[in-house]
Design brief:
It is built from 12 helices and 14 strands. The protein is α/β, with parallel strands linked by helices and 379 residues long. It has 2 domains: 134 residues, Alpha-Beta Complex (Aspartate Aminotransferase, domain 1), CATH 3.90.1150; 231 residues, Aspartate Aminotransferase, domain 2, CATH 3.40.640. It has a 7-stranded mixed sheet with strand order 1-9-8-5-4-2-3, with helices on both faces. Strands 7-6-12 form a 3-stranded antiparallel sheet, with no helix packed on it. A hairpin with a 2-residue loop joins strand 10 and strand 11.
């Protein structure tokens, strides 16, 4: 690997850079903004309706319901199944807090299952022993853009009459055996947080399903339980995707496949450049299409490497540094340190490198070169 001292200079490589994306789409996005402002309609208008159709069609799902965030997508999905107090939902400890927040909002208890060491997704061999007569759903998280092993999850769900709600908030376009993540279970939930592969310019989310009954219930749940103006049939919430974000997402959806292909190209280059390094690299199972929302490496010198890169102008993040069962907010569920050893080990070793479609070859080579140089230091 060539020495990078001569090329880095004052180069700054942020872990995310949304300005580059906007610069490339400025004309399209500015036109979309203007159209919304001129319409005078900002809540549940034509852009939301059209985006829901377009996103459902993109995934091959029957229906889609735009909501306020990915967290709310998960929450409303649980509520659509009347999951609440006294119920249990199986998920993972290495996820973002919002996954668990949604379960808590519904009043249910998260039951955690450790993950596989390579895909960072739920270990399906460990699920069955966590199923009780209180279990109502399995909530697999398609972590970092790699799908969970859905075939086994669906078999367990059928055997125990459980619902499956996919957390696909990091997995727009991810596939499992050729099927899009989010379309395999009863419902799939996506986030449009700005840094997602398909991101808005604020909060936003969506639920997809092939059930018209669930679709109709979600439509009510997101808007006060209303079946018509001022007429509420069920208890609902205020969780609506707004017109401006829907207009942005309609523009960006047209570019998603191109961006996904570029992310996969970047990941391939990282994998080639870091092949002989001492860090553990991401994997892609034979049945998976990884969309590399994040490119996550593992090393037992994570903190030192993070500092080394930061000093040289390279941004990184840790997704996620504290497993759910070790978060102060969720100690009430009674889990203890040591219960989920793979998640706990990973939390101390994982590091997310810069990856976004606008990243240049020179920048990728610089990041990889610095990692190789770090390994030759005495740190």
């Amino acid at each position: 690997m060539r020495n990078t001292e001569s090329i880095i200079g004052n180069m700054k490589i942020p872990v995310f850079d949304l300005k580059r994306q906007y610069e490339g789409l400025k004309t399209e996005l500015d036109s979309a903004f203007t159209t919304v402002f001129e319409s005078g309609i900002f809540i549940l208008g034509e852009n939301v309706r059209l985006f829901e159709e377009e996103f459902a069609n993109y995934l091959g799902a029957g229906f889609a319901v735009g909501v306020g965030s990915g967290t709310e997508a998960l929450h409303l999905s649980l509520k659509a199944f009347d999951i609440g107090s006294g119920d249990e939902v199986i998920t993972v400890p290495n996820t973002a807090v919002p996954t668990i927040s949604a379960i808590s909002f519904a009043g249910a208890r998260p039951v955690l299952v450790d993950i596989t060491p390579d895909t960072y997704t739920i270990d399906t061999k460990k699920i069955e022993k966590k199923i009780t007569n209180k279990t109502k759903a399995i909530l697999p998280v398609h972590m970092y853009g790699h799908p969970s092993e859905m075939e086994q999850i669906m078999k367990l769900a059928e055997a125990y009459n459980l619902r499956v709600i996919e957390d696909a908030c990091q997995s727009h376009g991810t596939q499992y055996n050729g099927k899009n993540a989010g379309t395999i279970g009863d419902m799939g939930c996506f986030s449009f947080y700005p840094t997602k592969n398909l991101g808005a310019y604020g909060d936003g989310g969506i639920v997809v399903t092939n059930s018209e009954e669930l679709y109709n219930k979600l439509i009510m749940l997101r808007n006060y339980g209303e079946v018509s103006k001022f007429t509420s049939k069920i208890e609902g919430f205020n969780s609506r995707l707004d017109e401006i974000q829907a207009a942005v997402l309609r523009v960006k959806l047209k570019h998603l496949d191109t961006w996904t292909n570029r992310r996969r190209e970047i990941a391939t280059l990282y994998l080639q450049l870091l092949y002989n390094s001492n860090v553990q690299l991401p994997c892609e199972r034979q049945w998976a299409k990884h969309v590399y929302h994040l490119f996550v490496i593992r090393t037992n010198k994570r903190d030192a490497l993070k500092g080394y890169l930061q000093e040289r102008g390279v941004g990184t993040q840790i997704h996620y540094p504290i497993p759910i069962h070790m978060q102060e907010a969720y100690k009430k569920f009674g889990y203890k340190a040591g219960e989920f050893p793979i998640s706990e080990r990973n939390a101390g070793e994982i590091l997310s490198l810069p990856i976004y479609p606008e990243l240049t070859k020179e920048e990728i080579e610089t990041v990889a070169g610095l990692i190789s140089e770090f390994q030759n230091t005495d740190l």
